[in-house]
Fold:
Amino acid sequence: MRVHDSCVSVCIPARMGSSRFPGKPLARLCGKPLIQHVYEAIQGTAEVGQILVLTDHEDIVQAVNEFGGEVLLVTESCRTGTDRVAKVAQALTYDIVVNWQADEIPLHRHLLSDLVTPFLQSSAGMGTLKRALTESADVLNPSIVKVVTSHRGEALYFSRSPIPCWRDGYHHTGFPLAYMHLGVYIFRKSVLLQIANSPSGILEDAEKLEQLRALEYGIPIQVWETRHPSLRIDDPADLPVAEAEFFAYHASQREERH
Structure:
């Protein structure tokens, strides 16, 4: 199979009951619900052959139907988005499955390709993305998840705390202070089901980060770097900032094309 054949199923878990932002998938950004922005951005990725929103609420089903997307109601209780994706794994078209979080809006059409292309060229069972952080405020922000990796690019740990901890302070130059973890995972279906069938881990419960379950049970996570931007919406206060960034980014892209 060629790398650019359509060979990936993308699932977008979208819950109504976010503790910090109830109803977040339907919050409007530039006139569209967030879930529509995510869905339409992913549609532009060559390797993607199937996109499916997985939700626990009829209002999201209606919204996705209105913009012409595919949606499936999954009413069973699920620990995490990955567990929700695993519930429908056997019904997915492809053996390679992406779990894309409904509040991570890709701005550049190659962002998902930065994950899918190297994964298809590798033997990894699970992968994700990181992006450089250069501002100390971002490193200290617990809403921004950080990741550290080995020299082979495998994840060593994910945390809401600053990792690594620069003992002598953030005065180094010429390289990132840290790397943020983007809310996207890619799996071979067998690995996805292995993770979903494992009990929740101590680290997962402590940090409230589902990917730590894989590390606790010895499942390697390959991490690739992207330089392409995305918008992350954590709470309602992020919306006006994200809207300004959205307009600014697309305005700059129009200027470059002309």
Remarks:
- The CA atoms of residues 6 and 49 lie 5 Å apart.
- The first strand starts at residue 8 and ends at 14.
- The two ends are 36 Å apart (CA to CA).
